[in-house]
Amino acid sequence: xxxxxxxxxxxxxxxxxxxxxxxxxxxxxxxxxxxxxxxxxxxxxxxxxxxxxxxxxxxxxxxxxxxxxxxxxxxxxxxxxxxxxxxxxxxxxxxxxxxxxxxxxxxxxxxxxxxxxxxxxxxxxxxxxxxxxxxxxxxxxxxxxxxxxxxxxxxxxxxxxxxxxxxxxxxxxxxxxxxxxxxxxxxxxxxxxxxx
Amino acid sequence: xxxxxxxxxxxxxxxxxxxxxxxxxxxxxxxxxxxxxxxxxxxxxxxxxxxxxxxxxxxxxxxxxxxxxxxxxxxxxxxxxxxxxxxxxxxxxxxxxxxxxxxxxxxxxxxxxxxxxxxxxxxxxxxxxxxxxxxxxxxxxxxxxxxxxxxxxxxxxxxxxxxxxxxxxxxxxxxxxxxxxxxxxxxxxxxxxxxx
Lengths: 196, 196
Hints:
The structure is a homodimer of 196-residue chains. Chain A has helices at residues 11-20, 39-49, 60-73, 77-91, 114-124, 137-147, 163-175, 177-183, and strands spanning 2-6, 25-32, 53-57, 98-100, 127-129, 148-154, 188-195. Chain A is an alpha/beta fold. Chain A has one domain: 3-Layer(aba) Sandwich (Rossmann fold), CATH 3.40.50. In chain A, the strands form two sheets. The first copy, chain A, has a five-stranded parallel sheet with strand order 3-2-1-4-5, sandwiched between helices. Chain A has a two-stranded antiparallel sheet with strand order 6-7. In chain A, helix 3 (60-73) packs antiparallel against helix 4, helix 3 crosses helix 7 (163-175) and helix 7 (163-175) packs across helix 8 (177-183).
């Protein structure tokens, strides 16, 4: 059974891949706007874990709208949510039985409600799986430590293949680095380098 | 890492066991009130899947209170929820890193909210995992068909090791079969006979 997993190269989506690997033919798919080459970090992480990899290109207009939301809000949550939902819709277009992402129980964003999940499934005739949605932060950290080689550091420094890098780049190009730093609070991110 | 999974012998908790098996030393634990020998169906299913098995005895008073709720309500939801939370508390007393259950995304009962999960984890210093909470009904059915040999039939006829059988027995002893049938709507249940 073919499954496409929305992949950032980080700890969470990598663990999701390991969980699903026992039951599906998992392909890791990095969604991007074609604004930077950050998706290559997704490919490297996928290679290091031994999973097939592909990319899907997203609608540039969604990036512009997400950035507009973030600038209006002064924080990234709603913009990230909008992009994630668009990415799930795009991945669901693929010829697969199931799609998945790495959202965790304790994530504040992105979140995928039961209603959103059901709607995705009904419209695209795929199963939507969130294998980490029943795992809290401590369980995820414990598993990542046992199963993965992970590099951790401040977002903006750690190479990643998620949307944040591209949205940062878009804001930087139009509004400068100071605005980037005011919209995105400092937080740590992870990139996976291999299996433990 | 030792993990105790609350086990009914049915499809959902069996699939939860298979998912966690790659990462934990999974022990299947059937919780019961000592009212019937139904827990033996849990042992048989665990044997058929090749997992270690144990039982934990629950507080009889909780069964009485759950039955009281069910009779007052005229439906089983709140009583089942009460028993499930008590069972999780009991399993969390074990000397394990993590506990788990088979609750699915689309389950109406039992449900374990994020707040309840966090509280369980904090008070007992264990991780609480719900590996199927990111899987909808269609995905669970698809996986069960590929991975398990499952027998399906009306509840009350299919042997099971969950609380429903004991609560039914308790209501039957005190109020007769008609009351049992009025409280529990007809629904299908499953018992696992082995791996596919």
